[in-house]
Amino acid sequence: MPTLAKIQRIGHVVFATPNFDAALGFFRDVLNFRQSDAIGDNVAFFRCFRNPYHNGLGLFRGVDNSFNHINLMVTEIDDVGRAFNRMRRNDVTIVNGPGRHVASGSIFLYYLDPDGMTVECFFVFQQSPCTFYDVSFLPHTAHQLTVC
Predict the structure, then answer these.
(1) Fewest C-beta in 10 Å: which of 2, 12, 80, 112?
(2) Across-strand partners of 132?
């Protein structure tokens, strides 16, 4: 029986900013990121344009500029349990979870690394990559249409 969680990739990183609206505009308009999700008017998730994964960057309205957490995507749901057991055996502080995100239904576990930074172990039931279509034949449109 495996005892290590199988990390697939970095899912996303999340930062807080007091200049939330300006940061949204910067990532969207200057860096050409695409917004993939929002939670109210205080949290937004983005992906780099042409990145097929749902999101890679999160921003939320905060009182200062700070790192919030890094998300590590695991291969299977049992990996979240393996991570939980391993963290407990090694006296790692569990911040939240295991639990289920309401919006996506994904399974999560938040814990602290030795520097006190928050790490999220995350299993997503269905990753739906975005598809890019060439729509340059249409008048007055961008040259790509993204469907997620």
Answers:
(1) 2
(2) 146
